[in-house]
């Protein structure tokens, strides 16, 4: 889900007039989206929501947003809800986005973590990319982890867990095929080592790297996070800017519970935990350390 939720114009590629939405219908959908996904839709997002959902309503034969809302509640498979969040999510990202975070990860986090873990006789490093979108961030972290460990990588229990609420972007992440503009910020050495150039001009992540990433659909609004062990590093960038304060605070508390002692927590550069919190210690812009 990482980035630009409900962004852009209300115009939709379908032709014809936009369906109208009543105050009641908007309120019902807004409440459902908030309860299930934590996304806080303001009144200013009303026309954008209408534009994003036009195609779903037309294809499913709903004559009103009320009918569509009732169908969402009745769908026990939750496939309709999954399609809803896919439609209202825009996932714009690319490799090496917010470069300073990856430099901090390579230059500071990995050396400190590796030393601390080896002193405890452990070679199990756990990284969670929460809100992974189409996979660029997760693969970026994996490349840097492999570069840091080098020939020792096979001696570590590495890999990465990457989750998102959108099934659509997770399918893209698992395929690991990206257009040129998504990889153009990568150093040439990483591009040559971890990607295969395809005949259509796109780039495919090599199987050796792709198999080290576990992509799962996961809703950050779940009351319980089903992880048996805490993570040494959590990236959750450009996700919480779309939540209200109570939702953000509750989510940060859950992240804190699932961060190992001495672990690291990364936000997007436009996000902050604020000065009032005492769960994480500020290290660098949008980088925090568990107290």
DSSP summary, beta strand count:
10
Helix content: 40-55%
Strand/helix succession: HHHHHEHEHEHHEEHEEHEEE
Uncertain residue ranges: 2-15
Strand content: 15-25%
Average pLDDT number: 89
Strand order in the sheet with the most strands: 6-2-1-7-8-10-9
The helix tally amounts to 11
Q: What class do helices, strands and sheet pairing give?
A: alpha/beta
Rounded to the nearest angstrom, the radius of gyration is 20 Å
Distance, first to last CA: 28 Å
Reported for the largest beta sheet, the result is: 7 strands, mixed
Label the overall shape. globular
SSE blueprint:
Layout: H1 23-37, H2 46-60, H3 65-74, H4 79-88, H5 99-119, E1 127-130, H6 136-149, E2 160-164, H7 167-175, E3 177-178, H8 180-183, H9 188-194, E4 195-197, E5 203-205, H10 207-210, E6 213-217, E7 231-235, H11 245-257, E8 259-266, E9 280-284, E10 287-290
Parallel strand pairs: 1-2, 1-7, 2-6, 7-8
Antiparallel strand pairs: 3-5, 4-5, 8-10, 9-10
Helix pairs in contact: 2-4, 5-6
């Amino acid at each position: 889900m990482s980035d630009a939720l409900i962004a852009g114009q209300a115009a939709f590629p379908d032709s014809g007039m936009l369906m109208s939405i009543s105050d009641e219908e908007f309120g019902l959908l807004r409440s459902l989206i908030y309860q299930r996904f934590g996304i806080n839709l303001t009144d200013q997002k009303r026309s954008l929501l209408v534009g994003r959902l036009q195609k779903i309503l037309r294809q499913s034969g709903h004559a009103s947003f009320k009918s569509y809302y009732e169908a969402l509640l009745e769908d026990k498979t939750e496939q309709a809800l999954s399609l809803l969040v896919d439609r209202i999510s825009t996932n714009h990202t690319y490799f090496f986005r917010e470069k300073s975070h990856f430099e901090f990860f390579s230059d500071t986090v990995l050396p400190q973590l590796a030393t601390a873990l080896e002193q405890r006789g452990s070679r199990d490093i756990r990284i969670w990319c929460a809100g992974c979108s189409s996979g660029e961030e997760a693969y970026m972290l994996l490349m840097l982890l492999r570069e840091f460990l080098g020939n020792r990588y096979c001696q570590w229990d590495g890999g990465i867990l990457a989750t998102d609420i959108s099934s659509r972007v997770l399918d893209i992440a698992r395929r690991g095929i990206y257009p040129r503009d998504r990889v153009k910020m990568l150093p040439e050495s990483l591009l040559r080592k971890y990607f295969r150039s395809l005949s259509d001009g796109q780039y495919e992540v090599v199987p050796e790297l792709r198999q080290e990433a576990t992509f799962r659909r996961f809703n950050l609004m779940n009351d319980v996070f089903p992880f048996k062990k805490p993570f040494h590093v959590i990236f959750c960038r450009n996700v919480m800017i779309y939540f209200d304060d109570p939702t953000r605070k509750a989510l940060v508390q859950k992240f804190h519970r699932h961060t190992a002692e001495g672990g690291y927590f990364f936000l997007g550069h436009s996000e902050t935990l604020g000065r009032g919190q005492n769960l994480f210690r500020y290290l660098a812009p949008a980088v925090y350390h568990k107290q």
